[in-house]
Amino acid sequence: MLQINNLHATVGEKPILKGLTLSLGAGEIHAIMGPNGAGKSTLGYVLSGRPGYEVTEGSVTFNGQDLLALEPHERAAAGLFLGFQYPVEIPGVSNVQFLREALNAQRKHREEAPLSGAEFLKVAREQAGALGMDMDMLKRPVNVGFSGGEKKRNEMVQMGIIDPALAILDETDSGLDIDALRIVGDGINRIMRRPDKAVLLITHYQRLLDYVKPDFVHVLDGGRITRTGGAELALELERDGYKELAA
Amino acid sequence: MNPSAPTRRDEAWRYSDIAAVEAAWPLPAAEAIVVPAGGNFERTIVQDSGTIHQLDIAIGKGAAAAIHVLNIGGDYGRVELNVTLHEKSDFKLGVVQIGGNTQTLEIVTTVTHAQPKARSSQIVRSILAGKATGTYLGKVAVARDAQLTDSVQSVKAMLLDRSATANAKPELEIYADDVKCAHGCAIGELDPMGLFYLQARGIAPADAKKLMLQAFVAGVFEGAADEEMLTVAALKKLVDLV
User: Fold this and answer.
1) What was the pLDDT predicted at A30?
2) d(Cα A58, Cα B1) in Å, to the nearest integer?
3) Does B193 reach chain A within 8 Å, measured CB to CB?
4) Most buried by CB count within 10 Å: which residue of A26, A95, A221, B214?
5) Domain for residue B4, yes or no?
6) Is residue B90 part of a domain?
7) In which domain, by residue range, is B90 found?
8) What is the homologous superfamily of the domain A2-246 according to CATH?
C-alpha cells in the first residue's frame, strides 16, 4: 500500500530524514518508535505534505500513485489520514461544519456524491458515540477549549468519519489517561483493522501497543530505520531503552 | 488641485486615497439621523461602489441604534460616523471591510458619550489582500458627567498578503472617572498550521482560507435585519479574493 524508498527530507535546511525505507502492506499495523529528535513527526508531516518539509531525495508510492506529487488535500482524498500530535484549534469553525466540508471535498475529489446534512450527522453521531464524545462537543469550534485528551479523541472521531485507507497516527497516545488510552486504542482497531487498510503508529511508549497490536515494530533513529522486528521488539525497547539497543 | 479638500496632515484623512477624496470634494452635507428618546434605529450600509458616506447620529435618552457596514467596493470607500449618545442609550456598530488590489477602505468613527449610563460597542474586522489598505480610526469621547459609560472597541485585521496594509487607531478621551472603556486591537495573518490542518483533512487551499476567514468575520452581523444579505455579500467578496 505504502512504499517509502530512501527518503531524505529537510526542515529549514536541516536534514532530518536520511535515507528512510519502509513498506506497509494492506491489513498491516506498523509501529515506529525512537528517541526524541529521531525524525518520527517529520516522517508524518512529510507524508502528509506539510509546507516547509522538503523532500530532497527518494520516493513515496501510495497505492501506485506518486504521493509526493500530490497536494495535502489530494493526499487526504487519496485515502491518507494524519492524526496530529498537536491537533490545531480553529476558532469560529465548528467541528461539524469542518468535517462535513472535509468529507464532501474528499468525496467530490473521488467523484462520489456528497453526503446530505442528515446523512452526515448520522455518521458523525455514530463515530462520536463509539468514542464516548458528546455531540455538543462536535458542534463546538474545532479543538477550542478541548483538553489534550479530548483533542486526541476528536482526532479519532474525525478518522472514523473520514474512514481513510491509511492512517499515520503521530503520538495519538500522548496526553491520554488510562481510560482514554483504551477508548482510543479500541477506536483504532475498530476503524482501521481491516484487510484493506493500514496504520503507521508513531509512538514513544509500549502502552498503546498493548491495545493496538502491531504486526511490525521499527526503530527510527538518526533519520533512518535502524531495526525492525515484531511486537516483541517494543517490549525489548521498553525494557532496555534505545541507547542499549543502539550499542 | 482642490484647496478646500483635506490633506494627509488632517488626522482623519491621514491614510486616505487623497486623489479620490479631492475628486469627490466638496462632499454633500452628512446625513443627519436623530433617534428620539426610547426609539430604535437600524441601518445597513453596503459600500460597494467607491463612495464616501457620512452620517451624524444623535441617539436620544434610552434609545438604541445599530449600524452594520460592509465596506468592500470601489478603489476608495469610506464610512464616517459621528455618534452622540444621551442618557442610557445604546449604540452598536458592526463593520466588515474586505479589500484587494489597490483598494483603500476606511471606517472612521467618533462616538461621544455626552450623558451617563450609555453603552457603545464597535466591532471591526478587516481582511486585506494585494496592496489594499484598510483603516479604522475610532475615537470614543466621554464627557465629564457621563458616568457609568460602558464602551467597547474590538478591532482586528487579517492580512492575506505581506503587501497589504492595516491601520487601526482606537482612541479614548475620557473626562468622567467612573467608566468602563475596553479596547482591543490585533493585526495578523492566517494561522499556517490551521490551514495545513484543514488541508490535511481534504479541504482545498482556497476553501480552507475561506473557511477560516468566514470564522474571522463571524458574529459581526449577528442580529442584523439584513444579516443574511450581508453574510452572502461578504462571502462573495471573499471568494474573489482567495
Assistant:
1) 97
2) 65
3) yes
4) A95
5) no
6) yes
7) 11-190
8) P-loop containing nucleotide triphosphate hydrolases (3.40.50.300)
Does A162 contact B201 at a Cβ distance shorter than 8 Å? Answer: yes
SS3 A172: coil
Q: Is A64 exposed, middle or buried (0-12, 13-18, 19+ CB in 10 A)?
A: exposed
What tens digit of pLDDT does each residue of B15-72 get?
A: 999 999 999 999 999 999 999 999 999 999 999 999 999 999 999 999 999 999 999 9
On whether residue B123 sits in a domain, the answer given is yes
> Which residues of A lie closer than 8 Å to B, measured between beta carbons?
48-51, 71-73, 75-77, 82, 84, 87-93, 97-99, 101-103, 105-106, 109, 141-142, 158, 162
Nearest to B235 by CA among B224, B215, B223: B215
- Read off the pLDDT of residues B162-202 as tens digits, 9 standing for 90 and up: 999 999 999 999 999 999 999 999 999 999 999 999 999 99
Q: Strand A14-24 relative to strand A2-11: parallel, antiparallel, unpaired?
A: antiparallel
Residue B109 lies in a domain: yes
pTM of the entire structure?
0.88
Domain count for chain B: 1
The C-alpha of B191 sits at a distance from chain A's nearest C-alpha, in angstroms, of: 9
* Count of pairs with CB atoms under 8 A, one residue in A, one in B: 79
Contact A212, A29 (CB under 8 A): yes
Does the distance separating the beta carbons of A102 and B203 come in below 8 Å?
yes
| B221 phi/psi in degrees, rounded to 5 | -100, 10
Q: What backbone torsions phi and psi does residue A74 show, to the nearest 5 degrees? A: -75, -35
Map out the domains of chain A as residue ranges: 2-246
Residue length of chain A: 247
* pLDDT tens digits, one per residue of A171-185: 998 888 888 899 999
